[in-house]
Amino acid sequence: MSSPHPHDLDARAASFAHRHLLGIEGLTAPEINLLLDRADGYVERNRNREPASELLKGRVVVNLFFENSTRTRTSFELAARRLGGDVINMSVDGSSVKKGETLIDTAMTLNAMHLDVLVVRHQESGAPKLLADKVNCAVINAGDGSHEHPTQALLDALTIRRHKGSLKGLTVAICGDILHSRVARSNIHLLNAMGATVRGVAPPTLLPSAAERLGLEVHHRMETGLKDVDIVMMLRLQQERMQGQYLPSVREFFRFYGLDYEKLKLARPDALIMHPGPMNRGVEIDSQVADDIHRSVILEQVELGVAVRMACLEVLTMWSGPGNG
Question: Has residue 243 got a pLDDT over 60?
Fold first, then answer.
């Protein structure tokens, strides 16, 4: 893939006036399309194992993960290296943060390193925004609390777009633990911005308050929620974030809300099956359904994550404007 012409850079930069990527909320459809278009261009390049680019040569990308996520961290690391960047993975378990250093102290330390991009995953909502306000580099939110996970929503959107051509006019069912899911929130913002209809299918205890205001068409039964949908997006049951009684039992949850072939019959015959991972097989989704080579795009989601993160790194380091978004 050839490097963009300088005039093209100037034109594109005007269409992405954000210094950071802290969430999908607030991004316009043209901005989302810009990221998806750039990511789409990297997919075949990665599949063909083309040599690393030098786009980020001399640039430093730091992965600062306060929560474990081998898949997301590795994906960002691969993305940076394929663009020729230098990558530092900071281990929080062995860092000063674990010994009581505050996020602001961490920001000051990182500033002294003169890095170019900080990729942050944190268990508290708003932590990446706090760091973004204090550092001089671009910040990418790799997941914060129950708030947002923007690059996951972008890779989900790219997966859908490559199969369906467009997101506009599609009906997408997001099913399961919506209350605790930052993936769900980012997807709801993105899908609404792109003109899709978004259904939330979950028991009342696993839905956020005022779910309709988020842009969800609420269903409490899979029988109505999955009817004639184009995409079935299952979510992980996040029991580690649950304090109190959210559901009777895992077995009951699968019976009513787990995706199996019987429930899948309600969707359109060409409906895609998605899951952000990691999956709890037999809890949110039946193993046979998850591994269905004709319907499931779960492994493709993982693959496209690298291309999406390459696009985000490119846009934020080369094309981003002075805004704080």
Answer: no
